[in-house]
Write a structure and sequence with these properties.
Blueprint (H helix, E strand, L loop, with lengths): L1 H17 L3 H27 L12 H16 L11
Helix pairs in contact: 1-2
Length: 87
C-alpha cells in the first residue's frame, strides 16, 4: 500500500515539472514532498513493525534478581540460593 504514495509522489513531481502555472507547480511540489514523506513512513512501518520485541519473553525483576544471585553464587563457588527451577 505504501508504494502507491511513491507512485503518486512521482506523478505529482512530473505534473509540477510539466505545468506552466507557478501555483500548480508549487502545489505539485508540496504534494510530492508530502507523499514522499508518507511513503518513507509507510516503508519504515512495514519494515520495522514486525521486529518489535515479544513482551511475553521479557524477564520480570524478581527473575532477573534470582539470575544475578545465581551467577554471583557460581562466581564465588558457593551453593546457589534456593529458588524455582529454571524453565
Amino acid at each position: 500500500m505504501h508504494w502507491l504514495y511513491l507512485i503518486f509522489a512521482a506523478g505529482a513531481l512530473v505534473l509540477s515539472m510539466r505545468t506552466t502555472s507557478s501555483a500548480l507547480m508549487v502545489i505539485g511540489l508540496i504534494a510530492s514532498l508530502g507523499l514522499f514523506v508518507a511513503w518513507v513512513l509507510g516503508w519504515y512501518t512495514a519494515r520495522m513493525g514486525d521486529t518489535q520485541r515479544d513482551e511475553s519473553q521479557m524477564i520480570d525483576p524478581a527473575e532477573l534478581r534470582r539470575l544475578r544471585e545465581l551467577a554471583q553464587a557460581r562466581k564465588q563457588g558457593t551453593a546457589p540460593p534456593p529458588g524455582p527451577p529454571p524453565l
